[in-house]
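With this grant's support, we have settled on a layout for protein records. A representative record follows, to show the layout.
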Amino acid sequence: MTKIKPFYDNSQVRETLTKHPIITDLVNKDLSSLYKENFIIFPQQLAQSKDLDSDNYIFQSRNGNTWACNVVGVLSNGTDELRINSRFSNKETHEDFFLRYMLQKVLNYNVIDNKLSSSNEMSYYDLLVFLFPHYLNEALLKGVYKEYVKKKYNDANIKGPIDVARHIRKNIPFLGKVSYHTREFSYDNNVTELIRHTIEKIYNEYEFLLNGNEYTKENVRTIKQVTDTYSRLNRLDVLQSNILNPVKHGYFEEYSALQRLCIQILSEEKAGFGNNDEQVHGIIIDVAWLWEEYIGKVTEWKHYGRRSDLLTMQLFQKPKTSPRYPDFVCNNIPIDTKYKKNIDKRNDYNQITTYIHIMQSLKGGFLQPTDKFEENGYSIIGFLNGYGGEVFTYKFFIPQTAEDYPTFIERISRIEDDLKALSL
């Protein structure tokens, strides 16, 4: 496997790479279409991401150039591995401390006391394993997966077709038992067995991931309780059966995503899986969504969005049919997180002006990451005509030169403290 020098989100792809088969296969290809293939996409509900609505690609062609969009991740075609780092990763060592830190914050892992904190390298496999508890919990919200399975019996209560060969082998001389099989709706099936095998593998390597919170621990217990036929020796058979029989029912979309994730974890494949070795596979993370969720964890501001657990703002008093979603509100001040490099002086300005007007606020603004320390902090963009109001931006500095991960955590924690101390 040839690892190609990484490039960065929201940046122009090097001209020498624009003709690479991975990029030509994915340029201008909608993420929703990749979701139906063998890609792991986080978060799996693309509708949660407002920032991807108008920029729903990994790569996009603009004015004859190819650009990486608001995603990071690892892509492979079986021959080459291509990594898209966050633009805040170290340009010399390619260590992406910022991505790792945001993932750990958003997924509720202890960013200090765990196995990966002492390591500078976070591999593709590490990314897969990190996402497992989130995908497990999302799937279990639908209840435990249940499907028809073939069960074999040898008793006197005949409930299905007789297995003649097995009956002759087991029940001669005849003592009242008959060998037969049935199809039963069961929680113990190929999919739950696959999840169980993944749980056992992760326990041996990253136990802290499955002990992070009570919800995860309860879901792990549930899977263990329903997988009565689990045996470590059956791992390869269970893995192969799931590769050949993907979950397809739309209602179980979360289980389909979890199944793909489990297959890659158990296979420990960096190139994905499937019959076509040339097909592009990988893991894609919506870093704009991750940035917004990370800020929510840091600040605990009122959070708005399309998810049922988030708040909604209405454009009209009646009827309430035109919802609006500022990312956050603090002290009646709307704040939009913008991960992309540049604020759109038309759409983004119009958006924040609408929020200021609806809320009758004195100000509203943007929260953007920056790699320039001198930009760190609060600055005024301008004052609105008409009803007035201040529009501002707050630049959040991402440390660039930390020699190791614990040092990065120490430095970014101070930047977080400055943001939390902000008086709006």
